[in-house]
Structure formats: structure tokens, C-alpha cells
């Protein structure tokens, strides 16, 4: 059962929703940038500079969160996102390496 913030538990992370979330190039970009940072590092959602409206940024981060790829935490009037690296590696070993190795578009 997902926690109160919409994050699925590790055993609930399924390949279909993960691949669906990663199908979008902007969401892959977010995952790549988080994967390139230190383990457990969190960034504000606005720090990614996605070239879309605020509502669309919210949609992209919701898709990543609900798929189980990221964890989001409210910090004042901003939201921080971090990669669920250990959880994804446990469920789908090597997937993050594939995404991280993809050339920037």
C-alpha cells in the first residue's frame, strides 16, 4: 500500500508503470540528473529547469513519484525530489544504469 504521500512501497514498484514514466524524455532527464548526483541527494523540482509550465512539471514529478522512481518531500514552499536508487536497483537491477547512460537529447 502506498504511503500517505503517494510513494509505493518497494514491493509495489512494478515494471509497467516504471517504463511508462520513463517513456517521456523529460522524465528520463530528471532521473538521469538525479542518478548523476550523490546517492540520496535531493533537489527542488524547479532546479531541473524543465521547459514546460509549472502544471506540467507537477504532472511529470507525480508520474515519477507514483511509479516509485523518486521520493518527494515538502520543504517549506518547495518540494524536494530524490531518486529511490536502492529500491529501483532491488526491483530492476541495471535499469538506472541504462537510463543514466542514455545520451542527452
UniProtKB/TrEMBL annotation:
Record has Transcription regulation as a keyword: yes
Position of the signal peptide: none
Keyword annotations from UniProtKB, A to Z: DNA-binding, Transcription, Transcription regulation
UniProt xrefs under SMART domains: HTH_ARSR
Record Pfam families: HTH_20
HTH arsR-type domain residues: 7-103
Gene3D superfamilies: Winged helix-like DNA-binding domain superfamily/Winged helix DNA-binding domain (1.10.10.10)
InterPro entries xrefs: ArsR-like_HTH, HTH_ArsR_DNA-bd_dom, HTH_MetalResp_TranReg, WH-like_DNA-bd_sf, WH_DNA-bd_sf
Keyword Transcription regulation among UniProt keywords: yes
Molecular-function annotations in GO: DNA binding; DNA-binding transcription factor activity
PANTHER family: TRANSCRIPTIONAL REGULATOR, ARSR FAMILY (PTHR33154), TRANSCRIPTIONAL REGULATORY PROTEIN (PTHR33154:SF12)
Listed name of the protein: ArsR family transcriptional regulator
Organism for this UniProt entry: Streptomyces agglomeratus
Lineage: Bacteria, Bacillati, Actinomycetota, Actinomycetes, Kitasatosporales
Amino acid at each position: 500500500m502506498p504511503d500517505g504521500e503517494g510513494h509505493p512501497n518497494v514491493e509495489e514498484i512494478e515494471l509497467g508503470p516504471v517504463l511508462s514514466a520513463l517513456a517521456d524524455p523529460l522524465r528520463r532527464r530528471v532521473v538521469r540528473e538525479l542518478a548523476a548526483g550523490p546517492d540520496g541527494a535531493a533537489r527542488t523540482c524547479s532546479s531541473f529547469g524543465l521547459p514546460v509550465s509549472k502544471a506540467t512539471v507537477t504532472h511529470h514529478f507525480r508520474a515519477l513519484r507514483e511509479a516509485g522512481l523518486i521520493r518527494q518531500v515538502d520543504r517549506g514552499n518547495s518540494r524536494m525530489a530524490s531518486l529511490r536508487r536502492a529500491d529501483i536497483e532491488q526491483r530492476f537491477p541495471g535499469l538506472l544504469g541504462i537510463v543514466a547512460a542514455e545520451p542527452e537529447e
